[in-house]
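Many introductory courses stop at the sequence. We go one step further.
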Amino acid sequence: MKPTHIAECVRANLEGYLSDLGSSEPDRMYNMLICAVEKPLLEVVMQHTEHNQSKAAQWLGLNRNTLRKKLLEHKLIA
Protein backbone atom coordinates (compact mmCIF):
# COMPACT_ATOMS: atom_id res chain seq x y z
CA MET A 1 0.00 0.00 0.00
CA LYS A 2 1.35 3.39 -0.97
CA PRO A 3 1.41 6.25 1.54
CA THR A 4 -1.07 8.10 -0.68
CA HIS A 5 -3.57 5.28 -0.14
CA ILE A 6 -3.22 5.62 3.62
CA ALA A 7 -3.69 9.38 3.35
CA GLU A 8 -6.78 8.88 1.21
CA CYS A 9 -8.24 6.46 3.78
CA VAL A 10 -7.57 8.92 6.59
CA ARG A 11 -9.07 11.80 4.60
CA ALA A 12 -12.22 9.83 3.73
CA ASN A 13 -12.71 8.73 7.33
CA LEU A 14 -12.20 12.25 8.66
CA GLU A 15 -14.72 13.58 6.16
CA GLY A 16 -17.17 10.91 7.33
CA TYR A 17 -16.48 11.73 10.97
CA LEU A 18 -17.15 15.44 10.43
CA SER A 19 -20.26 14.66 8.42
CA ASP A 20 -21.56 12.37 11.18
CA LEU A 21 -21.11 15.17 13.71
CA GLY A 22 -23.67 17.26 11.86
CA SER A 23 -23.93 20.64 13.55
CA SER A 24 -21.79 19.58 16.53
CA GLU A 25 -18.22 20.86 16.61
CA PRO A 26 -15.34 18.39 16.97
CA ASP A 27 -13.11 18.49 20.02
CA ARG A 28 -9.44 17.51 20.22
CA MET A 29 -9.37 15.95 16.76
CA TYR A 30 -5.59 15.92 16.62
CA ASN A 31 -5.26 13.78 19.76
CA MET A 32 -8.11 11.54 18.62
CA LEU A 33 -6.43 10.86 15.29
CA ILE A 34 -2.96 10.36 16.73
CA CYS A 35 -4.30 7.85 19.26
CA ALA A 36 -6.31 6.04 16.58
CA VAL A 37 -3.29 5.67 14.29
CA GLU A 38 -0.40 5.35 16.72
CA LYS A 39 -1.45 2.18 18.54
CA PRO A 40 -2.05 0.04 15.44
CA LEU A 41 1.16 1.41 13.91
CA LEU A 42 3.12 0.33 16.98
CA GLU A 43 1.40 -3.06 17.10
CA VAL A 44 2.16 -3.84 13.45
CA VAL A 45 5.76 -2.65 13.60
CA MET A 46 6.44 -4.56 16.81
CA GLN A 47 4.98 -7.71 15.29
CA HIS A 48 7.06 -7.38 12.11
CA THR A 49 10.25 -6.72 14.06
CA GLU A 50 9.51 -9.68 16.36
CA HIS A 51 9.23 -7.22 19.29
CA ASN A 52 12.78 -5.98 18.82
CA GLN A 53 12.49 -2.45 20.22
CA SER A 54 15.76 -1.23 18.74
CA LYS A 55 14.79 -2.39 15.26
CA ALA A 56 11.24 -1.03 15.65
CA ALA A 57 12.58 2.34 16.78
CA GLN A 58 14.83 2.43 13.73
CA TRP A 59 11.94 1.56 11.39
CA LEU A 60 9.82 4.30 12.95
CA GLY A 61 12.58 6.89 13.06
CA LEU A 62 12.21 7.21 16.83
CA ASN A 63 14.61 7.14 19.72
CA ARG A 64 14.34 3.75 21.47
CA ASN A 65 13.38 5.45 24.74
CA THR A 66 10.60 7.35 22.96
CA LEU A 67 9.33 4.10 21.47
CA ARG A 68 9.37 2.44 24.89
CA LYS A 69 7.41 5.36 26.37
CA LYS A 70 4.80 5.08 23.62
CA LEU A 71 4.54 1.32 24.06
CA LEU A 72 3.91 1.85 27.76
CA GLU A 73 1.33 4.59 27.08
CA HIS A 74 -0.63 2.25 24.82
CA LYS A 75 -0.21 -0.66 27.26
CA LEU A 76 1.65 -2.73 24.66
CA ILE A 77 4.35 -3.64 27.18
CA ALA A 78 4.35 -3.90 30.95
